[in-house]
Amino acid sequence: MEKQKKQSPLGILWGWGKAHHGKFILSIVLAILGVACQMIPYFCVINIISKLFAGEKSFLPYLAVCGIALAGYLGKVLFSNLSTVISHNAAYKTLRDLRERVVNKLTKVPMGTILDTPSGYYKSIIVDRIESMEVPFAHLLPEMTANILVPLFIIVYLFVLDWRMALFSLVTLFIGLIIMSFGMRNYAEKGAGALAASKKMSDAVVEYIGGIEVVKTFSQSAGSYKKYADAVRGNADYYIDWMASSQKTMCSYNAVIPSVLLCVLPGGMALWLTGNITTMVFLAAVIFSLGLVGPIMEAFSFTGSLSMLGKNTEEICSLLNANELNHSENPVELNDLSIQLNQVSFSYDNEQEVLHNIDLSIRPKTMTALVGPSGSGKSTIAKLIAGFWDVTSGNISLGGYKLTDIPLFQIAEQISYVSQDNYLFNRSVMENIRMGNPNATDEEVKDVAIRSGCDSFIRGLDNGYETIVGSSGSQLSGGERQRIAIARAMLKNAPIVILDEATAFIDPENEAIIQKAISALTAGKTLIVIAHRLSTIIGADNIVVVNNGNIEAQGTHDELLKTCQLYQDMWRAHIGSRDEA
Asked: When comparing pLDDT for 346 and 114, which is higher?
């Protein structure tokens, strides 16, 4: 894991917003000016009272003071709104940058890390946790800073006026802080529990929606699907219990903090009656003590966000600091695209090894087929070649360079990977194919669709190439999704093509068409095919028989029929099932 010095949540937050520090600092300055302007009317009130006591009869001096008070109010509105606009602008750009960092990070972590993690977890971080940073960025930094600094200046001013009145004005504040400290003593723990309950519900919701077909098939309603129902009820019950337990503390705190006059009035009156303070000092202390309450209450309103900040930043950092695939960042010059596996062993969990000392050589512009029983390690070999994982031991080289010496983006440029379960985005057919090459024209997309055997069924859709395929391609059949995925890979025009059971969903009537299309579109490329239908790979230059994580044999179809018992058995089973069909 990347080593990172232990930082406070606020330090981490400030680091995330580094690119926009100028705007954040400006918003803080404007927020301070806004709260300072908010104090101007209090000075004006004191000035008016002093003029009244002095017997001022002229209207103009009072009008001037009222004008200053109005200017203070308008300044407060202007500076506060400018601060809010600038801080929100910087905040949402920071959230955008943070989301891009997280998504970019996902491209660098091992595929197994992603597959072994519930998708609800990533949704929770990318959407919910990062969105929760909006309040700290847009409000906590400028507003809390301003609402703390200005009261500090007022308190200093009160001490200058009279230290006893300053202490009277702080009594209820200290009592309120004591009450809050009792109420907040387990806030971080409760907040962590709330996040866990929300994450559990989010995971359950994603799982429920993803498996809705199974749920409906077995007549399960949302309420009767226990895991979903328990997670939803658990989330609601947790928040209800938490709010109920903290309600007394919050009510007491909200009642005590604003009650500053409970101490200021009797204490100040006693000092005034005994001649220890003047009338103006007494009145000034009363007015400014009232001016303390608003900013302090505003500052304390962020304590909840501040307490939750640690857990939120921890979860986001756990993803940002996750182990990455160990690859160089500097592109290399690939003179050829030969692939070599040398003594490659691999384990998904660093405990149980699934590949054992694999040696394999794949020459450029040849067809290599990986065959063997289910779970033998065929797809694992293909995914290691594609750079989805790093090998546990040994090494894989491409063009004479170890994969770890080639940047991930450069490996991706060289390889088109089509699996048996390809994802289609909820966009048009045209856009799903074009993802293979974002710069392709409509004519190029249609041309590759024709050559991959997609054009006829696409034109039969309601809106042809502009038909929206639905979430995960739900509006299309499995075979149609697969053919679009093949077209997308072919449009990429990468020199190496990996087909991992890519024809699994193709019906027998279209199998010959698809095989012909694949042959035409992969001409002159390095083709690696994983297939159960052995009839589709009999023309391969090299057929590799994988069994229990080992290469049992390799050669042409005719050679293996003579020398490999496992391949003979697989071929007889395939021919028998095909004849039966």
From this structure: 346
Dihedral angle at the C-alpha atoms of 68, 69, 70, 75, nearest 10 degrees? 90
Separation of alpha carbons 232 and 223, rounded Å: 10
β partners of residue 346:
355
DSSP E strands, 275-392: 339-347, 353-362, 367-371
The CA-atom distances, in angstroms, between 166 and each of 160, 163, 289 are 9, 5, 8
Give yes or no for a contact between 205 and 228, defined as CB atoms under 8 angstroms apart.
yes
Confidence of residue 304 (pLDDT cuts 50, 70, 90): low
pLDDT-derived band of residue 94, with 50, 70 and 90 as boundaries? very high
The alpha carbon dihedral of 413, 415, 421, 427 has a sign of positive
d(CA 238, CA 329): 46
pTM for the predicted model, two decimal places: 0.68
Distance, in Å, from the CA atom of 534 to the CA atom of 570, rounded to the nearest integer, reads: 8
Reply yes or no on whether the pLDDT at 580 is more than 50: no
Q: Which of 45, 274, 257, 269 is nearest to 165 (CA)?
A: 269
Check if the beta carbon of residue 355 is closer than 8 Å to that of residue 364: no
Q: Is residue 198 within 8 Å of residue 234, measured between CB atoms?
A: no
Interval 360-384 mean pLDDT: 90
**Cα(161)–Cα(286) distance, integer angstroms:** 11
Print the SS3 string covering 369-385: EEECCCCCCHHHHHHHH
Question: 197 vs 191, 192, 204, 348, CA distance in Å?
Answer: 10, 9, 11, 29
Give CA–CA dist 37/30, Å, rounded. 10
What pLDDT, on a 0 to 100 scale, did the predictor assign at position 475?
Answer: 76
**pLDDT tens-digit readout, 58-77:** 889 889 999 999 999 999 89
CA distance 378 to 544: 9
pLDDT of amino acid 340: 93
Distance, CA of 243 to CA of 543 (rounded, Å):
65
Give me the pLDDT at residue 385, please: 92
| Degrees, nearest 5: CA angle 323-326-330 | 130
Q: Which two tokens stand for residue 504?
A: 């699994």
b/e string for 263-299 if b means 16 or more Cβ within 10 A? bbeebbeebbeeeebeeebbbbbbbbbbbbbbbbebb
Nearest C-alpha neighbor of 504 from the set 416, 418, 381: 418
pLDDT band at 219 (very low <50, low <70, confident <90, very high): low
pLDDT tops 50 at residue 576: yes
Q: What are phi and psi of 277, to 5 degrees?
A: -140, 155
Q: Determine the length of the chain.
A: 581
Q: Which of 118, 293, 279 is nearest to 211 (CA)?
A: 118
